[in-house]
Amino acid sequence: MFTGLFGPLALCIQAVFARNGNAMRAPIAPIPRIYNDGPVMSRNGTQLPPYSPIILSTPGEGNAEPFTGYLTNGTINGQIAQQQNGSTIVLEHRYYGLSNPVPNLSGKNLRYHTIHQAIEDLVYFANNVDLPQMNGAGLSPATAPWILIGGSYSGALTSWTMVNHPDVFWAGYASSAVVEAILDYWSYFEIIREFMPANCSADIAVVIAYVDEVFSSSDTLTHLDDVAGVRNNLWDWQSLQPETGPGAKFFESCDALEVKNGVNAPATGWGLENALSAWGSFWNSSYIDFLCGEEGVVDCLGTYNPNSTYFTSTALDNADRSWTWIICNEVGFLQEGPPPAGDLSAIVTRIVQPDYDIRQCAYMFSDVFASPADVPTAAGIANVNSAYKGWNISVDRLFFANGQRDPWRASTVSADGVDRPSTETQPIAIGNGFHTSDLLTANGRVDPTVLAVQNEALAYMKIWLAEWTPPSISPKREEPYSRKVNSSRFFKGIVV
Asked: Which of 65, 154, 199, 327 is the most buried (most CB within 10 A)?
């Protein structure tokens, strides 16, 4: 867990487990010590209110160490803390980074790596943490307003937590929140196609159509779906932000296709002959080395060797493996080509369908899935959407922020065809940003639509926090070792 200081506290913490199972605290950022119990003063000498908000976030599917910036006003977390004299905390998600109660990430050891348990971690932490600040043991959600913030999966986790425990967090901020779990998430690439340069999408589409035609008529080629490797430079779109310059990897690939002898292609592109040659040259000359380094192409991009290290390594701090477990069991989000039938222009091969990725689930977690038929993705998705309401979420004081150019938008409340009105209690703000653009302060400086989303959120947080009133009697805190049916199995006994 990490924390940041605007009001009393800024803290970032990872829960580290020794081999004997005992939890050890390992703060990544220094924890400020409180040497007196007098009023907390800001740097300008102003006395801070006793009920300043506690702003909690988790980076979700990754090691928390690179996310110390989310303790500062370089993010919406810090902007809210600065406006409201609050404290910021970043808490590492179970089974990511160093927060592992198990010695390795085998499938059997991941049985408690679930959305439900992640929700219970956040709730248990909020109710029981003893923060290193004045009255740190008495700042539970019963005695101070807590705000839960997240983006992407952790944005969805914010929504799902507030559905599951509506009385714990006073307010929430969910950026690019993928609230609706979807098995065949081919819309990911459709949003990219819609917003990428028209000449680039046109040329990629003619190449993909040609590849599909050739491969579909072949009786000798095998492992045809491994042509999915060409998805990689399309995934580079997710790294774009409003402040991204023209040298980004995604635009390098488009320049390779669309700039010929110093001349840009028209909106319709140069056509198949040039596009096929230029795209192949881009991959062969630089992009394969960028992706694979010294690893061979088959080992790097192939998916048919169940004994490859990618599938068999159970080492800790492997975010890809931990996230794949959630993909296979609960959320899907399999980023494939469009449905085989239909005339929709495709920038990803139609040969790649959900079975391609579900097969890999069985390879990666062969200790629990004997075959792809045993992978419960569809059932898990149904359970998640039923339990946490998906697009039908309705929670008071939950702010949704989305970006038009976000490839994940189709799983958010701003998805095309999803008629969710913005309300005073559950606002939905959308700008021209990319994935979670609104979380970063810098993006608001270069894109006025992102700034408008951030300012709207700050205004709502000010209103909602003004509505919070401290209780007259503080309820008794839950004992750290008590046995509560719905409590987290992960944070039992952890002293922060």
From this structure: 154
